[in-house]
Amino acid sequence: MTEELPTGWVKPVAKPTPESMRARVAELRAELTAAEGQLREMEEGARLEALVKVHNLMRAFELTPADLGLVPAPKRRGRPRKTAA
User: Fold this and answer.
1) Looking at residue 73, what is its pLDDT?
2) CB within 8 A of 24, min separation 6: which ones?
3) For the whole model, what pTM was predicted?
C-alpha cells in the first residue's frame, strides 16, 4: 500500500496559541470535573446497592455480624493503650 500524498494546494493549519491552549485545558478540566461527579454518584449507588443485598442476605439466613467474624469498631480513636506484660 502506498500512502497518497495530497496534491495541489493544502490549506495551512494555524498553530495553537497559548490562549487557545489555556481555553482548551479549561474546557477539558470542566469535562473532567463533571465526569468525576458522575463517577462518584455511580460508585455511591453501587455501594448502596451492595449494602442492601448484603443486608437482605443476612436477614434471609438469620446471620449477625458476629457470625461473619466481624468485630465492632473500637469506640476510642488513637493509639491502643499499653497493657502490663
Assistant:
1) 74
2) 16
3) 0.56
